[in-house]
Amino acid sequence: MLIKKPADIRYSEVTPKHVYLNRRSFLAGIPAAFLGARELLAGAKLANVGKSKLSIDEKQNTYKDVSTYNNYYEFGTQKEEPSQNSQKFKTSPWTVSVEGHVAKPRKFSLEEIMAVAPLEERIYRHRCVERWSIVVPWVGYSLSELLKKVEPTSKATFVAFETYWDLKQMPLATPERAGIPLPYVEGLRMDEAMHPLTMLSVGMFGETLPPQDGAPVRLTVPWKYGFKSIKSIVKIKLVGSMPPATWNITNAHEYGFYSNVNPTVDHPRWSQSKERRLGEFRERQTVIFNGYGDQVASLYAGMDLKKYY
Amino acid sequence: MPRKPWARVNWKKVPVWLLSLTPVFWLAWRAWNQDLTANPIEYITHFTGDWTIRFVVFTLAVTPLRKLLKQPDLIKFRRLIGLFAFFYGTLHFLTWFAVDKFFDVHEILADFVKRRFITMGLIAFLSLIPLAVTSTKGWIRRMGGKRWQKLHRLIYVTGIAAVIHYYWLVKSDIRLPLLYATLIGLLLGYRVIVYSRTFSASSLKNPR
Q1: CA-based max dimension of chain B
Q2: pLDDT tens digits, residue range B114-128?
Q3: Rounded Cα–Cα distance for residues B170 and B174 (Å)
Q4: What does pTM read for this prediction?
Q5: Residue B49 structural domain
Q6: CATH of the domain at A43
Q7: Among B33, B35, B39, which would you mutate to test the A interface (most chain A Cβ atoms within 10 Å of its Cβ)?
Q8: How many folded domains does chain B comprise?
């Protein structure tokens, strides 16, 4: 696992910080007509991003933390592999098909996705099932905005999501290698999907997403373990029964469909009572619903959270 | 007059020392460069764990390699290599105990009882302690070669427990645990074959 190849790039070869910090002025200097609306490249500055009342007031993790410590098994199962193996991932053109029990099923281009609702920055906690957590300034809007556009019918009780899967672009993405069935799929109950906190994210740190963080469009569900926040979405289907979810299929005993952050329900192999915020030395206590209980606990009123983990 | 200290150095062992310490130097270099990933504690835990199981494999490989390569002198390095398995195992244990859990005995005991991969890891580590303690020439003399060898077969337990510990802790990608399971399986299988052959040979030699 860990005899690592030395990093391909030495620190001395990395773009000097002042040049790096000015890359946006370089990008901004490219005439929009030449760039074209299609070129929504990873790491491009996003314009007109508003603030959100849903943001938390906690110290954010660094861009480096968030972009070099990833679980994205299609690009490798070690934390630093996705950032190394995904840089050529082509996310343009991109379409997201929204279908199923809806009055107006349709495909959205990425440009259309970007224009569904005003983009806003939301600083959310993100708690991984592996006991680490980060604070990330995501950019996007509530998933409900997109779902409203296609007019869900009364038959829609769950939402199923699917990640892009292509061995040409993701040569490591075999189920044998990843140890999970692919393509990666996830699901939410309709009321969870329509909750304002549930976010369709197209960026972070004011820029479009890098591939390893789920470019070009991903889900962000801050009160659930990170694996529920599916990356690089190509399909959203409104369905009438509980859809499959990759980790749940892989090991139902360890990963439930709901997977709400809950310090009192342990993973069978490790305690969930604490977590390590990346960048901190001591572990901190994990909070029920990742601290979003006052906004989401009512969704689960009367449910036995030990049974529906 | 006491001999000069370097007169006692076994120069043949110096390369083994240097090679065996290379991972520590590598880790220290990465730490110096603040290049231990976004989660250094997890990185160090995995790094030291990986090197522990590798050194267990190296230790178990000495005996078969002596025969296969016809290099009986390799036995002179076995204790040293085994001690490095203990060295990395200790670093691995201390990273978990002192850094990750920060001496939280309450949580550690809970983990030990409830988390079977931790239980298995501790079995692997604890099984190395008597071997490390009795690794000196004095102990070999006191115990006698036969008894000493018998005790040191505990490393078979270490190997099996270490593989299970690794297999139980990964989330889904079991390729590396399977690789070590295969290696340790082969190395232990070799001993089973040798043992059964000598057993049947000696029973042939001494018919009732």
Answers
A1: 69
A2: 899 999 999 999 999
A3: 7
A4: 0.85
A5: 11-194
A6: 3.90.420.10
A7: B39
A8: 1
